[in-house]
Design goal:
Length: 737
């Protein structure tokens, strides 16, 4: 009996098929035989694949559907790549997922990477022979930038297979946020997106490839591909092979729901990601190209790439429904309409999701949100210099003009009484408990500046929905963060610019050039995320859940925190260590805990008093169609899951990473201090929220009665959380409390 009936899929693009299908079927079979894939033995006897298996899975059909417009030789090469990647996955399963021989698995993957170099060794097995052949046939046609991106995505899908092995070995099932992040690395869809560039003859221009719109296209494409695959492969992976890296299983366990309900939730998320892709392609990408002055050739390449991703989605859906590799017999197929009129049903399904996303009613009276006791295993600490920092911070904020009138407001963004009530020095004193007085002053100032900026943008630009003016304001901020010493900066035109100029002068001095560039990028990412919030607010659009979580880290200032945390030891720990799965998951788990803490405490402030829609509780309410209490409880469960993940990584994964990368004692001590900083950061932020008046109903009513700003259709939204970390002589950090 099938575990569930396949839900009805939203698919806005028609599937088409490449006329070169038959030649690629024949070619790929011959190629697989030549590489030794049809003779590769299983450890316990038999073959990983034989010719019948390969014909039944029909990767030629998959590639003909997913790349319908490329010529015959190109389709042959693309099909060979997919034969190789599925063979690798199945061989890896046979060799290591059952034996649990983790050291041998790591050695196997490390050696495979050598075949993406200019001087590869002689192949010793079919996977190595296939990768060597494919690499030599593909890379001559592509740029160095494409090669770097493709090597990274190929590295991820091979290396992160170890994450799946570790989870199977420990009987551990990922939490939903961790799963989506890791599935991108191990699932291979970013790798597929790179191959779309090759197949479409539409390599992304390097200057656009790493922008937010292009990254969102890649991420939404990847998530949709993976979620669809998880629905079709649930029976094979979970019931037959004992795997636990499957979104349906993850949702079953986290939400405690039946398999059918979990499958429907996965499909809802799949639909949301497809619609995020559409929104980005139709709105953000054209703006990106216009603002970047893209040439006609660049515009054509980007358009062909977007079309290639669309073709892959529709073709992948069609292939999954036909391939014997997956659950697709009659008892599991979607129950909805097929054939003539199906497109209308698809439109109706998509419309339901979009209506839900745009149905938010601002200023609903929700009252205080009763808060559960968050799971917090760490004790906060306090700087002895708190009182001094409190006195100092008021004078600095006054000097920067934070209490002055601001355009678009009746009086100003803040007044002195409101600033004192924020008590950002209290937050800085906990997340920076060991700082000297001067360091604590700087940390408090970053908190003050970031919180002021996060309130300034909606107060000044939100009511008028003047997004061009907001963008112009944001663009000027980079001018106050010069990368070279001695470069002149403009005369500050407002408190935001004046504060940033002062902070950059005090903070950037001791940085290396590389650290300074990285830090400025982190600040720019944070301020640009305020524009993302303004755009959603203007459209009345509740964000997609995944997009919200990932952008929340930026609006909260978490990415800047990560950069600041590295400043004290920028040359001690190699950059590649911070790009590992272990460090990325450690940091994002901590960031999500802090972000969701702020969202719980600020729910009434944002929803009832500010008409705000950027809050994880509201996002969950909207996506799942549940009440605020249920959404609150799910938020608390996500916080607990992320904290447990943080603890697991700190105690189990970090020691393994130290050994794998052969880190010296100095680097290990630096990372251990990073872990302690994150513990102080999370515990300090939680304690600050408990003590701060900013989110209490009496304070909210007081501000309303004083009418500090006139009623606005889209008024200032809730502040950032807060955060700070230790930096060399100048520990700093902002966020929006």
């Amino acid at each position: 009996m099938q575990p569930f009936v396949m839900p009805d899929f939203y698919m806005p693009y028609p599937a088409r098929i490449n006329p070169n299908l038959e030649r690629s079927r024949e070619h790929s079979t011959t190629w697989a035989r030549k590489m030794g894939m049809l003779d590769a033995p299983k450890p316990g006897g038999g073959l990983v694949w034989d010719e019948t298996d390969l014909a039944r899975m029909d990767y030629g059909l998959m590639c003909a559907y997913t790349h319908p417009d490329c010529d015959g030789p190109t389709l042959d090469l693309i099909t060979d790549w997919y034969v190789w990647v599925f063979f690798f996955d199945d061989q890896f399963l046979e060799e290591f997922k059952y034996s649990r021989d983790l050291p041998a698995a790591r050695a196997y993957v490390d050696r495979l990477e050598l075949f993406m170099t200019e001087t590869p060794p002689e192949p010793e097995n079919a996977a190595e022979a296939g990768l060597k052949d494919l690499w030599e046939r593909t890379v001559p046609a592509m740029s160095d930038d494409w090669r770097r991106r493709f090597i990274l995505s190929t590295h991820n899908l091979m290396v992160e297979s170890m994450w799946e092995l570790d989870n199977i070995d420990q009987g551990r099932i990922a939490n939903p946020i961790e799963y989506v992040q890791m599935r991108r690395r191990v699932g291979g869809a970013p790798w597929s997106a790179n191959l779309v560039e090759y197949a479409a003859g539409a390599e992304l221009p390097e200057r656009f490839a790493r922008t937010r719109p292009m990254q969102v296209l890649s991420d939404t494409f990847s998530d949709a591909v993976h979620l669809r695959n998880d629905l079709y492969s649930y029976e094979r992976e979970v019931r037959q092979e004992g795997e636990n890296s499957n979104a349906v299983l993850v949702f079953e366990r986290f939400f405690g729901c039946p398999t059918q309900e979990a499958a429907e939730l996965v499909n809802d998320l799949l639909t949301s990601r497809l619609q995020q892709f559409e929104t980005t392609a139709l709105t953000e990408v054209p703006s990106l190209l216009a603002e970047g002055g893209a040439s006609p050739a660049e515009q054509i390449s980007v358009a062909a790439y977007v079309k290639g991703l669309q073709d892959w989605q529709s073709g992948g859906q069609e292939w999954h429904a036909r391939s014997s590799r997956y659950m697709n017999d009659a008892s599991s197929l979607p129950s909805g309409p097929t054939g003539l009129g199906t497109s209308a049903a698809t439109v109706a399904m998509g419309l339901r999701h979009r209506i839900r996303q745009h149905s938010f009613r601002p200023y609903e009276p929700v009252g205080p949100l009763p808060l559960p006791e968050p799971y917090m295993p760490f004790t906060h600490r306090m700087s002895p210099h708190l009182d001094d920092a409190r006195r100092y911070s008021v004078g600095w904020a006054r000097a920067m003009g934070f209490f002055d009138p601001a355009p678009g407001t009746r009086a100003g963004v803040w007044d002195e009484k409101r600033f004192i009530g924020l008590d950002l020095a209290h937050c800085a004193s906990m997340i920076h408990a060991d700082a000297e007085p001067e360091q604590l002053h700087l940390s408090t100032d970053w908190l003050s500046w970031g919180t002021y900026g996060d309130d300034y943008f909606p107060a000044v630009f939100g009511s008028s929905r003047n997004l061009p003016a907001a963008k112009a304001c944001n663009d000027r901020l980079s001018l106050f963060m010069p990368l070279e010493d001695g470069l002149p900066v403009p005369e500050p035109a407002n408190p935001l610019e004046r504060g940033l100029a002062d902070l950059w002068r005090r903070t950037a001095g001791p940085m290396t050039d590389r650290a300074r560039r990285r830090f400025r990028t982190a600040v720019e990412d944070m301020t640009a995320s305020w524009l993302w919030e303004l755009a959603n607010q203007a459209l009345g659009r509740v964000p997609d859940p995944i997009d919200y979580v990932e952008m929340r880290r930026k609006t909260f200032g978490s990415d800047m925190t990560r950069s600041l945390a590295r400043l004290a030891h920028a040359e001690t720990v190699p950059d590649e260590i911070y790009r590992t799965r272990v460090m990325h998951e450690l940091e994002t788990a901590a960031q999500d805990y802090a972000c969701f803490t702020n969202d719980l405490f600020s729910y009434q402030k944002e929803i009832e008093f500010e008409g705000e829609l950027h809050n994880i509780v509201l996002v969950i309410q909207n996506f799942l169609g549940v009440d605020r209490i249920t959404a609150r409880d799910i938020t608390a469960e996500l916080m607990t899951a992320r904290m447990h993940q943080f603890e697991h990584i700190a105690t189990a994964d970090l020691p393994v990473m130290f050994e794998e990368h052969d880190l010296d004692e100095e680097a290990r001590a630096v990372i251990a201090r990073d872990v302690q900083d994150l513990k102080d950061w999370m515990s300090g932020i939680l304690e600050w929220h408990r003590r701060c008046v900013r989110y209490t109903e009496p304070e909210l009513l007081r501000l309303r009665s004083e009418a500090m700003t006139p009623p606005l259709p889209h008024p200032p939204h809730a502040g950032l959380g807060t955060s700070a970390v230790r930096v060399p002589a100048h520990p700093t950090r902002e966020s929006r409390p």
